[in-house]
Each structure stands twice: as C-alpha cells, then as structure tokens.
Amino acid sequence: MVERFQILSMDGGGVKGLFSAAVLAKLEEDLGIRLADHFDLIAGTSTGGIIALGLGAGLSPAEIVDFYVKEGPKIFAQHPASWLQHLVFRKFGSAELEAALKRCFGEKRLGDSTKRLVIPSYNLDTEQVYVCKTPHHERLRRDYKAYMWQVAMATAAAPTYLPGFNGLDGARLIDGGVWANNPSIVAITEACSMLGVPLSSIRMLSLGTTYDVTNHPFYLDWGGQLLWARSAAGIIMRAQSEGANGQAQHLIGTDCFVRVNPVVPKGLFALDRLNLDKLMGWAADVSRKSAPAVHRLIEGHDAPEFVAQRKLEEVRQ
After folding, report:
1. Minimal CA–CA distance to 10: which of 50, 70, 61, 58?
2. Residues with Cβ < 8 Å from 299, sequence gap 6 or more?
3. In the beta sheet, which residues pair with residue 207?
4. Which of 10, 137, 315, 317 has the fewest Cβ atoms surrounding its Cβ within 10 A?
5. What is the pLDDT of residue 316?
C-alpha cells in the first residue's frame, strides 16, 4: 500500500513558462528545500514539459529560469511582419528552439531522468494522443531511448506558432496543449493505472502560467467559423484546464490539491512575448502567498529514489 504519492503538474503557455519556473525557484528559496526531491511523478505539457524535463535532468528551477531568460528572446524573436506571416504560416521557425534545447539537455535521454516523467503531445497522422514517459513500468520500452531535446520539441510544437516535429519515429507531433494543456488528469491516470497508486494516496501541486479573464464578444453567441476563428483556441484551452482542475479535485479531494495560477491584467503576458520584469514580479508575489499551502501539501514526504526500469534490467543482465 502506497501511503503517499506526490505529483507536480505544470501547464503549457509558451514563454510564460518563465513564470512557472520562477515560482518553483522562489518556493525553493522560501522553504529551503529542493522541490524535485518531494515529488514522485512530474507531468508537464509544452513549456511545462520543458520544465519537467529540466527537473528530471537534474537542473534546479533557478537554472531553468536562466534558460528562459537567456534563450526566450531568441526563440520568440519578433519581426515587424510577424503578425502578417502568422495569418497564413507558422509565426516562428524551430531552429532556435532546437538549438537551445540541445544546449540545455545535451545527450541526455528520457531514460536518464532522475524523476518519473509524463509529457503529452499529439499525433496528427493517427489523430491520437502521444504521451512520452520515462521507463517507470516494464511495459514502457521505447520512449526512454529518445533524447530529452526531442521530447521537448514534440510537446512544445504549438500550432500556428511553431512547426510540427517529426523527429520521434517519424510521427507528426504537435503541442500536447491541444488536448492536455493542464496535464493534471493525465498524471493522476498514470499514477493509478500504471503505478497502482490509490487515489487516497495522491497529493498534487498544479502550476499554471497565469491567465486573464477575457470579455468574449457577444457575436460568439451566434457566430460562424470566421467569427470564432480568433477566440476558439483560447476558449478551448481555458475550458480544458478548468475541467481538469475540477476533475482532479473531485478525484483526490480539495485538501490534497493545490493550484497556483493567478489571474493577471488582460494583455499583460503572452505566449510568445517575454515580459521579464513583470513575470518575475508576479512569480515572486505568488510564490510568497502560496508557500504555506505548498509546504503543508508536501511536507513530511521525501520521494524515494527513482531508478528507471530499463536500468534495473541492465543491472540484472
């Protein structure tokens, strides 16, 4: 019987992942702990997937913050004609992101992770979900061979912003945010179905990338495809996230679930625009306010060392 199983779940949100990484870094400072040591499973989608992979690779949240600060402006470099290009073509190329991820992760593979990881993507060819996982179960026999940078490219390939990624077995993969921008339910399902963890044992910290409340125009009530084109993606992703929050709380209980995802003024942050000072300021404030709840949630539990299933087999051989 597993007495306690703690999960860190992190949303997608482009360069706003800097907020998530900064919250984790500030929490580590305030609580005087290494957060990754207290989680048995980490799930992340898109930018949250990059952070999850960083933690699995042994990077500290502060080092991940440095990655966003240094690489973000190059990955999402804005040009005068970007808005026009974005109407008919992806807004950014993938070369800068790929180079940055290779610098960050080097030759590390998913199987080298020191934490159990679950990273969602979506396969355009098969129209099925595609979830990359560390080898934390004997059935998981392929993903561990993938380089971490490849997994990061797949989960972060946001439609209209970045091209799809076909570097994992030739699959046409795009951002996992199209179905699991908030991967909390994905993580709970993995814990229960693959690892045999009872719902009563699960504790979860769910970390968003901020959101603003949009005053949706009245014409959406009766609008067709053209009128809905600009609003549909944001509404769907927001609805999915809220639905996942509600389901997670119903499954494991509100006392076992902490969600950190503040409302910010409309237009303050964007998926592809690095507002460094503002993001860091919000992260500092939010982490200070949420630190007591996070501490109550995770205190008293140190995650046992994770040894990948494939590495166990190699040792036995």
Report:
1. 50
2. none
3. 10, 260
4. 317
5. 40
Query: Is 175 among the catalytic positions?
Result: yes
Q: Which residues contact 38 (CB under 8 A, 6 or more apart)?
A: 6, 298, 301, 302, 303
Mean pLDDT of 53-74: 94
In the three-class reduction of DSSP (H, G, I as helix; E, B as strand; rest coil), residue 117 is classed as strand
Give the tens place of pLDDT for each residue, 202-241.
Answer: 999 999 988 887 788 888 888 788 888 777 777 888 888 8
Which residue out of 175, 241, 272, 287 is catalytically annotated?
175
Output the CA–CA distances (angstroms, integers) from residue 198 to 189, 193, 276, 310, in the order listed.
10, 9, 40, 25
CA distance 248 to 177: 17
User: Running DSSP on this structure, what letter comes out for residue 209?
Assistant: -
Q: Is 221 a catalytic residue?
A: no
Q: Which helix (H) or strand (E) holds 263?
A: none
How many CA atoms are closer than 13 Å to the CA of 278, on its beta-carbon side? 13
* Whole-number pLDDT of residue 312: 47
The contacts of residue 66 (CB under 8 Å, 6+ apart) are none
* Listed residue (60, 74, 56) closest to 26, CA to CA: 60
Give CA–CA dist 147/301, Å, rounded. Answer: 30
